[in-house]
Specification:
Blueprint: H1 8-29, H2 58-67
């Protein structure tokens, strides 16, 4: 009986094929990653001279929704 070493070219082929497959999957998946859409900034309001600068903004509305039971 002779001890044969596995064919290294076959092993290299399958390792290369796995690498190419993983790279192809990454290339296909990357363009589909959604970029977050920036929210439109609200107009900057000047604070009143005598206080009372409260106004109902989207942030405040969201806070009120989170506190409802």
């Amino acid at each position: 009986m002779q001890n044969r070493q596995p064919n290294s070219s076959r092993r290299s082929f399958f390792a290369g094929a796995a690498t190419v497959g993983a790279a192809a999957a990454a290339v296909v998946a990357i363009p589909h990653v959604a970029t977050p859409v920036a929210a439109e900034p609200e107009a900057v309001r000047q604070p009143p001279e005598k206080g009372g600068g409260y106004h109902l903004s989207a942030h405040v509305k969201h806070y009120y929704k989170t506190t409802q039971l």
